[in-house]
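Posting for a labmate who doesn't have an account.
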Amino acid sequence: MTTREKLIIGGAASVSVTLAVILWFFIHYLPNRKTKGMKTTSWKGKNLIKGFEGYRENAYYCSSGIPTIGYGHTTGVVMGDTCTKEQAEMWLDSDLKTAEATVNNESLKISQNQFDALVSFVFNVGSGMFKTSTLLKKIKADPDDKTIADEFAKWKLSGGVVVAGLVTRRAAESELYFG
């Protein structure tokens, strides 16, 4: 093997190691880094919300009796409305901005996973309920307080009735928050 070939192979190996380190940084370090400031929902958070909301082409009444369509969109929905997946995605992105602004406005020093969990929570229960919740009070006091999991779990009722889907959603949000 010539010196030139050795340099090329060595350079390629060096590039591979560098790319591996960069990839590790984006997968493992960034999602768990706690920062203040404006965040947006990651693909993980968006997929969590989409998974629990589900896509519905036709307007329906959610468990709270609110006309809903797409991926949990409620603004201006009238029974009989229909939508495409593309429209549902656009509404979801718009609705996420509202939930993100609610969480960002609290100036919490939280990780991306914690942010995503809170956006999912706000998306589901609404900004007003979040702002007055004990969940938020505990996060402000200590974002790593393990009793925050209990606060997520309390939000399982719709119309005074325990909803299995909400129990599962809160467990998933809590797991993401502490993950």
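Reply:
Got it, the structure tokens are right above this. The longest strand covers residues 56-61.
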